[in-house]
Amino acid sequence: METKAFVSCSKIAFDSESRIFFMTRHIPIGVSGEAEEIVDRKHTLAAHHPDLPPVYSTPDMIRLMETACFHALQPFCEEGEITVGIAIHVEHRAASGIGMHIHARAELESFDGRFYTMRVTADDGTQEIGHGTVGRAVVHVPSFVARMREKAPQK
After folding, report:
1. Does the active-site annotation cover 67?
2. What is the pTM of this model?
3. Residue 115 maps to which CATH number?
4. % of the chain exceeding 70 in pLDDT
5. Residue 83 annotated in active site
């Protein structure tokens, strides 16, 4: 008999009296997402400084890994919710040049409340170029944006 593990994801909603209610949905451990791109000059170190080589940059690899995480978790979010990155522990182990096809994959490894740990990898078709973990959290976009506006300096 096959056993599947599920993540219980709590959504916090406030009523007019500011009481907190919890709603639960299930996200299977192992759910995955992918993202890919072809390395262009804008994805390289050389795009940031002319003395640097035209190789795929670590920030671009991490961005692609984060996109794969988003694709894995977004189908489980409620309307108005997204997941955002909160932690990155990644190694970039091999260089990739312009024209190479980069493929990132993210798989849900664990959770703690509304926080998720994704196992991530990236390859360029010839070898793995990076791996690690990315932490994500569910946020309610309208509430998130409102909090950011409150923090912004008043003009």
Report:
1. no
2. 0.82
3. 3.10.129.10
4. 84
5. no
